[in-house]
Amino acid sequence: MSERVAVRKTYKLFIGGKFPRSESGRSYLVQSSNVSLASRKDARDAVVAARAAVKGWAGATAYNRGQILYRAAEMLEGRRAQFVALGVPGDEVDAAVDRWVWYAGWADKLAQVYGGANPVAGPYFNISAPEPTGVIAVVAPERPALLGLVSVIAPAIVTGNTVVVAASPSEPLAAVTLAEVLATSDLPGGVVNILTGAITETVPALAAHMDVNAIDLTGVIDTALATDLEVKAAENLKRVLRPASADHDWFADPGLARMTALLETKTVWHPKGV
Questions:
Q1: Is 196 left (phi over 0), alpha (psi -120 to 50) or beta?
Q2: What residues does the Aldehyde dehydrogenase domain cover (predicted)?
């Protein structure tokens, strides 16, 4: 009997809650596995999926969003060994689980910290409330592959945004495996979309896309590329988060900055009753 040939796994894109191959049919080899090489068309498809998910996700209760993020933590905990087998250190997987839980806890508390009633000189109530920005394009950091990815996705979606994430081209397996976790975590399709491949191909298309409201350049280490992306983003006045510093400590307390940076503030005036 001839020796069995193992089936090589093909890691696909994650768009709209599904796992399509790239429309270009291209892939590249990482750790003896095929990984889809996303095209600009795939990036546009991901934006369409993210936009379609905005209304339902932003309209969900903060409590519900927190429960779904906590479910993602549970599912990630259950697949710890799989991530370790992919080369992700065990302490990083544990930190990523804790990061999901940390942001889940903020889901129904952020509005109380970041919003509130404002004192005004008149017979009115003046209330400021945070609202999601919309569709966010995110460039994930190369390392730490899993913790860095969770640290840019979780703060964006916990407040009601949807994301299109360009995963690190050198560390895509953790990203697509995280997509498999999210697909079984009750997260509505389109809230998180993950593209693998060359960021020089997909991210400029996202930066210039008129239906993307903000772009997070955390994982961009090429200063010339970062500048070009900022110029493209200015076409429709996207909010831009600048690249993280090279010595950024992803294991440190993340604080609220990433959540509040992707929020809009709505202020409402209402007359007081007699």
A1: beta
A2: 34-240
- The full DSSP string for 109-132 is THHHHH-EE---SSSEEEEEEEEE
In a domain? residue 9: no
Q: How do 214-216 and 135-139 pair as beta strands?
A: parallel
Residue 264 belongs to a domain: yes
Any domain includes 13: no
Neighbours of 99 (CB within 10 A): 25
Positive or negative CA dihedral for 23, 26, 28, 32? positive
CA-CA distance, 86 to 173, in Å (whole number)? Answer: 7
Does residue 140 contact residue 215 with C-beta atoms inside 8 Å?
Answer: no
Q: What is the CATH number of the domain that holds 153?
A: 3.40.605.10
| Number of domains observed in the structure of the chain | 1
Would 207 be classed as within a structural domain?
Answer: yes
For the chain (274 residues), the mean pLDDT of every run of 10, in chain order, is 78 95 90 90 97 96 96 96 94 97 94 85 86 96 93 96 94 93 95 95 96 95 93 93 86 92 89 75
CB-CB contact of 82 with 9 (8 Å)? no
> What pLDDT shows up at residue 55?
96
At 172 the pLDDT is: 92
Residue 175 to residue 269: CA distance in whole angstroms: 44
